[in-house]
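Anyone else keep sequences and structure tokens together like this?

Example one:
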Amino acid sequence: MRRKDREVSDINEIENIIEKCKVCHLAMVDKGLPYVVPLNFGYDIEGNTLTLYFHSAKAGRKIDILRENNSVCFEICREDVLGYVEVPCNSGFSFESVMGFGNVEFVEDVNEKCKSLTLLMQHQSNQDFVFEEKHANAVCVFKVVTTDFVGKRKTNTNGHS
């Protein structure tokens, strides 16, 4: 990271950033070309390992790409307010983000699928849901388990982060 003054490496601060965000941009490679999709997600952190959970239809371009090449990059971001200064080129948004790399693993076990969907809905709605086998079997669930991630934060001089 070029701007070490903006790096967030403390896992508790990274989790705080993730908790505020509802969309993860998942980048993959489709026959040599970049392809990115915004996805709702759930997550779990154990030690320094981050697991992101996603769900989707069982078929489609994203699934085809991931079955051929499961390497991904992800970005989770929360933008705040524009910090305007007299020189417009020096203006900028305050933000918090988490970026990382990993490999997609498709979740086939029905109990793990139900747990994944529960974590996703808890994160998205702050409510507890119970998923049954029929719900889990109706969708594709996949995850990215990684230790290769870092947070970044820019705070404007007006105090916003």
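And example two:
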Amino acid sequence: MNQENLSRINSYLSFKLGEEEFAAHVGKVLNILEMTKITEVPKAPEYMKGVINLRGTVLPVIDTRIKFGMAPTVYTTNTCIIVLDIEMDGESIHVGALVDSVQAVLELDENTLLPAPSIGSKYKSEFIEGVANIDDRFIMILNMDSVFSSDELSSMKDKAVETEKTSEIEEIG
């Protein structure tokens, strides 16, 4: 399916970080994994938890809560890793994002999306494409490509490759 058709789909995967609910376009979500052992990466940024081996490729995993300025993830039976396809400089990069729990797949009409809050939001508004109001719950719709800057992604990719070369990572998938 090409990118144009994908962007016409109005399905979003919603997930929780603390008490807040967020959603990412399903076109960005490749997989949802149960929590697994994450191999730490020396000298990685604080939000980068480490890497996992996903079917023979090294996948950098970030703590989404730290990335958004929240307290680090507390692991529960619901904690999982959402595998995302991030677009960077025309290149596709896969990243695992730790979330507290996956909620649902939502069908959101563009007309139901409210603009991102311009002030007072504790999350960087450039990450937020809009807000959906569903059953009196506000769900922040994230622009997953802008959550990661290209510098961060290339740094995470480099750290992941370094780790791959220096250690054996348990394979999953």
